Amino acid sequence: MSETLRRLLKEGKAPQHNTAITPHVGVLTLHFQLYGCEDLKAKRKVFTPLRAVWGKEPDLAVAETADLEALDCATWTIAALGTSSQQITQRLDQVEKAIQEKVDAAILDIHREIL
User: Fold this and answer.
1) N or C: which end of the chain has fewer CB within 10 A?
2) Phi, psi for 33 (deg, rounded to 5)
3) Tens digits of per-residue pLDDT, 29-75?
4) Calpha distance 39→72 (Å, rounded)
């Protein structure tokens, strides 16, 4: 927090800005088909790059959202935050392409939504 903002908050004055920032959110949901996973540990190992690489990005949130106990499929959702829908679309394109290269599982279905 800047010193100026601290001073204004201490004095009880809110900073006056005429511009509003409207964040945009994009949601990418991927449904994967898995082969040869004998237990949940093997299944989670397949998706280690999802959390290791994209889970640490400041503009992304990554989570397994369905099929948690299934050994033959998985559903993962990536949420992206940005200043424009075009920026989010480009970012989700990058992520989707990289996931296809790094994750050893067939993608059955892709669903995108820009909020």
Assistant:
1) N
2) -110, 130
3) 999 998 888 888 888 888 888 888 878 888 888 988 888 888 888 89
4) 10
The rounded distance, in Å, linking the Cα atoms of 11 and 106 is 58
The CA distance from 78 to 51, in Å, is 10
Burial group, residue 49, by CB count within 10 angstroms (0-12, 13-18, 19+): middle
The CA distance from 113 to 42, in Å, is: 30
The string of DSSP letters for 16-53 reads P-S-----EEEEEEEEEE--S--SHHHHHHHTHHHHHH
Whether 114 and 24 have beta carbons less than 8 Å apart is answered as: yes
Our measurement of the distance from residue 37's CA atom to the centroid of its chain's CA atoms, rounded to an integer in Å, reads 25
DSSP class per residue in 58-69: TTEEEEEEE-SS
